[in-house]
Amino acid sequence: MLALTDSTFTSHLASAQRPVLVYFWATWCPPCRMVAPVLAQLETELADVLEIVKVDVDAEVATARDQRIMGAPTLNLYRGGELVHSIVGARPKPALLRELEPHLKLAAR
After folding, report:
1. 89 in the Ramachandran plot: left (φ > 0), alpha (ψ -120 to 50) or beta?
2. Please, how many CA atoms are within 13 Å of residue 32, restricted to the half-sphere of its CB?
3. What is the Cβ-side half-sphere exposure of residue 9, based on CA atoms within 13 angstroms?
């Protein structure tokens, strides 16, 4: 999973050819450790329709502030550089897929 920084966040999202799910996480966050393996699976399974990247909220403070991240984990889905959906907290894989599916269908049109 690609790690974005304060200096790469905006340009990466703007140049993305498919929707980007940004995983805002922290090393001290137990729910982050729970959701990370699920995201790794989804990264492989949905590679043709979704890019998954991560941002360490402690290291990339400006991005976390600018994106108004108030808790970890937060999963923000962006299309064309714009936020289209946000998920706060860990979810099991089926629940994540249910929340993401409508947005991925929109992107595939």
Report:
1. left
2. 17
3. 24
Q: Which of 92, 85, 22 is nearest to 50 (CA)?
A: 22
Helix (H) or strand (E) holding 43: helix 30-45
pTM (global) more than 0.90: yes
Separation of alpha carbons 25 and 22, rounded Å: 9
Distance between CA atoms of 60 and 40, rounded to whole angstroms? 21
Pairing of strands 51-56, 74-79: unpaired
Active site residues: 29, 32
How does pLDDT run across 18-65, given as a tens digit for each residue?
999 999 999 999 999 999 999 999 999 999 999 999 999 999 999 999
Which tokens sit at 34?
């729970």
Count of residues for the chain?
109
Residues 24, 72: contact at Cβ < 8 Å?
yes
How far apart, in whole angstroms, are the C-alpha atoms of residue 77 and residue 59? 20
Q: Helical H runs in the chain?
A: 9-15, 30-45, 61-66, 93-108
